[in-house]
Design goal:
Blueprint: H1 16-35, H2 41-55, H3 60-63, H4 71-81, E1 91-95, H5 101-107, E2 112-117, H6 120-126, E3 134-138, E4 151-157, H7 165-178, E5 179-188, H8 218-227, E6 230-236, E7 242-244, H9 245-255, H10 260-265, E8 274-279
Parallel strand pairs: 1-2, 1-4, 2-3, 4-5
Antiparallel strand pairs: 5-8, 6-7, 6-8
């Protein structure tokens, strides 16, 4: 059953018509990205997001407190990722940095941080908060404009599900290339078994139809990470519990046997895992 939007604090203040318009806009615009030729895909994605924000000015990304002023968000993100990182001054790349809260917070912990985002508007705004340890640049997530073995850590948070399925494959190849030996990729993305995770969850029960172009099961994404060279892969679940990918695959299979309404209330952290993948 679709979820009641009034139970989501990011949408609860909106009218049913506003939420419906948001869904319909994402549904239409996502198809322009999926159908775009590979050479035009990055440009199409930029246009689609700008067009979405033009059509839906009440979009949570536009109305929520963000950037350096969002102290609670910064604290929460740093608290989640800091225990998973090597000691500073490790060099970190955040792909799809949004308004830069995580990169900003980690730079304050003495990490050398570079955040990239596809939105020129966001990058222009973020240029105002650069420091010796914090920089931002415009780039998509598919072809990363960096030399081989140039980062200790790459982080993507709620990005992977927004990538065209073909681009997701290239993204993993690129992340592996720019990581130093022993480096780690921290990837947070929602589990398909609890989806859809985008705005379409308020209207459909099944495949995402909005800007989550493809959602993944844990077993599926583990296989992809291994295929592109990553060695040890751990999964971070609820309460920062770190388990091996193999064990979490078994847990997911058992969890997937439950009816969806029970999976939603007994997530064990499987609904939104963080993948901790190490370069050999």
């Amino acid at each position: 059953m679709p979820i009641d939007y009034r139970k989501d604090k990011r949408y609860a203040h909106l009218t049913p018509e506003q939420v419906r318009q948001h869904f319909e806009a994402e549904k239409i615009l996502s198809q322009t990205i999926l159908k775009a030729e590979i050479r035009e895909r990055s440009k199409t994605a930029v246009w689609a997001y700008d067009e979405l924000f033009r059509r839906i000015p009440w979009h949570p990304a536009l109305t929520e407190k963000s950037g350096p002023e969002a102290l609670e968000t910064i604290t929460a993100k740093v608290k989640t990722f800091l225990p998973l990182l090597p000691c500073p001054p490790a060099r970190i790349l955040e792909v799809g940095c949004g308004m830069g809260e995580l990169s900003y917070g980690l730079a304050r912990e003495n990490f050398e941080c570079l955040g990239i985002d596809i939105s020129e508007i966001r990058i222009q705004r973020l240029g105002e908060i650069t420091t010796a340890l914090l920089h931002f640049a415009r780039s998509d997530a598919t072809y990363l404009p960096f030399v081989d073995a140039s980062f200790d850590v790459v982080i993507s948070m709620q990005l992977f599900e927004h990538l065209h399925p073909d681009d997701a494959v290239e993204h993993l190849r690129e992340v592996y290339r720019i990581l130093r030996p022993g480096g780690r990729y921290l990837l947070e993305t929602p589990n398909k078994l609890i989806g859809p995770g985008d705005v379409s969850r308020f209207f459909v029960d099944g495949e995402a139809q909005g800007f989550h172009l493809k959602e993944y099961r844990i077993t599926e994404l583990l296989s992809m990470l291994k295929n592109y060279g990553f060695g040890r892969i751990d999964i971070v679940l609820r309460k920062k519990k770190i388990l091996s990918g193999r064990l979490v695959s078994i847990l997911e299979r058992l969890w997937g046997l439950l009816p969806k309404h029970l999976r939603s209330t007994r997530t064990m952290g499987l609904h939104n895992p963080i993948y901790l993948a190490y370069k050999k």
